[in-house]
Amino acid sequence: MSGSVAITITHSDKLVEYDLLEPDDNRIAKGKSRGITDDAELHYEGTLIRKGLDAPNVAEFILQFGSSVTSGVVASWLYNKLQGKDISSFQIGGEEVDIDEDSIQTKLDRYLK
Question: How far apart are CA 113 and CA 93, in angstroms?
Answer without folding.
Answer: 14
